[in-house]
Amino acid sequence: MQGQEDAMQGQVDQGKLEAFMGHAVNDLGAAMSAALVLIGDRLGLYKALAEEPATPEELARRTGTAERYLREWLANQAAGGYVEYDADSGRYALPPEQRLALAEEGSPVFLPGAFQVLAAMWRAEPRIEESFKTGGGVPWTEQDEALFEGTERFFKPGYEAHLVHEWIPALDGMEQRLREGALVADVGCGHGASTVIMAQAYPRSRFRGFDFHDASIETARRRAREAGVAERLSFEQSAATDFPGQGYDLVAHFDCLHDLPDPVSSARRARQALRPDGSWLIVEPFAGDRVENNLNPVGRVYYAASTMVCVPNSLAFHGSALGAQAGEARIREVAREAGFTRFRRAAQTPFNLVFEARP
Predict the structure, then answer these.
(1) What is the mean pLDDT of residues 215-241?
(2) Is the separation of the CB atoms in 294 and 288 below 8 Å?
(3) Domain range spanning residue 33?
(4) What Å distances lie between residue 302 and 108, 149, 327, 348, 350, CA to CA?
(5) Which of 49, 70, 102 finishes a domain?
């Protein structure tokens, strides 16, 4: 036994071990601090710091919270670089960059929604662990409610920044058609963020959102009423493979095709529902076609979400489980199998790939 231990130690590069341990400790600190980000978001602590710097006592008075807890919370946030600390004044401040990421809900880099998704992933962990053993899954509808709200808050800023200004103009002739009056299906719409954004931008067009999660449809209907677009926008509970209607100018799948049990049948339904000159818009997480292309921070996030949310939903229905890092080649193959004859990458961001397919 001693000989084996000596041989193992002889194979270990001490510098690499120390570097990895430092990396792991950093990850541990980030993971343990995620719950504190949620608390800061829910209690309005970031928003209060965005208004002006504060000591723990001052922040406690302004937010109606307990000063003793804030001392620990603020020190943690400063150690992680989320807030800044001035030792001379004893005050903590939220720099402009962190303000965009943590305190401004409409910012294109707003992050707290992602931490809500993380909370839902932890709550699903026992069921996902069991699925590792059985090969089964967990339907989206049975995930924690934090996933639904977190997904909306995470994706909505990107849609607000890019959908109307970049993605739709990148489609062949679609922007003009929407301005003149078109019929659009948003499949897998969730809380309806993408659908509402389009309806607000194109008042002459009509929109229908579909999702198989009834609670999300109810929330989407409320979002439409609040936005004042309910007369031109309807939401219905429906699966992606049999959503109702024909003659759509545009069918869209926003960040959901890879989650579906049967992406090819869903794509085939999109093709059947389109006009002959219509477009299928597919927005997917950014991914290369090979694993080694995705071994980076963005890929790490998406592979984690894929393991805990995307693949389990598909496998719960014995689906093909494309996964959140499917990549362009696999999405192109889905479109080809569904009968689309033209497929191209229309746009991209650091977090998304945007494709257009035509019948």
Answers:
(1) 97
(2) yes
(3) 14-102
(4) 18, 18, 12, 16, 12
(5) 102
- Only one residue has tokens 């639904």, namely 148
Distance (Å, whole) CA 140 – CA 312: 8
Name the token pair of 310.
């995307």
Q: What is the CATH number of the domain that holds 171?
A: 3.40.50.150
Cα R_g (the chain), whole angstroms = 23
Pairwise CA distance, residues 256 & 263, whole Å: 9
Give the confidence band of 9 by pLDDT, cuts at 50, 70, 90: low
Distance CA 163, CA 199 (A): 12
| Separation between Cα atoms, residue 128 and residue 347, nearest integer Å | 34
Report pLDDT for 315.
98
Q: For the whole model, what pTM was predicted?
A: 0.92
Q: Token digits for 7?
A: 């041989």
Give the separation between CA 190 and CA 31, rounded to whole angstroms.
Answer: 27
Can you tell me the distance from the alpha carbon of 117 to that of 123, in angstroms, rounded to the nearest whole number?
A: 10
Q: How far apart are CA 12 and CA 7, in angstroms?
A: 9
Statement to judge: residues 79 and 148 lie in one domain: no
User: Strands, DSSP E only, in the chain?
Assistant: 84-86, 91-93, 183-187, 206-211, 233-237, 248-254, 274-285, 342-348, 352-358
Render pLDDT for 56-114 as a digit per residue (tens, 0 to 9): 999 999 999 999 999 999 999 999 999 999 999 999 999 999 999 999 998 999 999 99
In a shared domain, residues 261 and 308: yes
CA distances from 26 to 23, 31, 295 (A): 5, 9, 18
User: Using an 8 Å Cβ cutoff, are 339 and 269 in contact?
Assistant: no
- Of the candidates 324, 305, 205, the one whose C-alpha atom is nearest the C-alpha of residue 259 is 324
Hey, which residues does 200 pair with through a beta bridge?
none
Query: What is the Cα–Cα distance from 190 to 235, expressed in whole angstroms?
Result: 10
pLDDT at 1 over 80: no
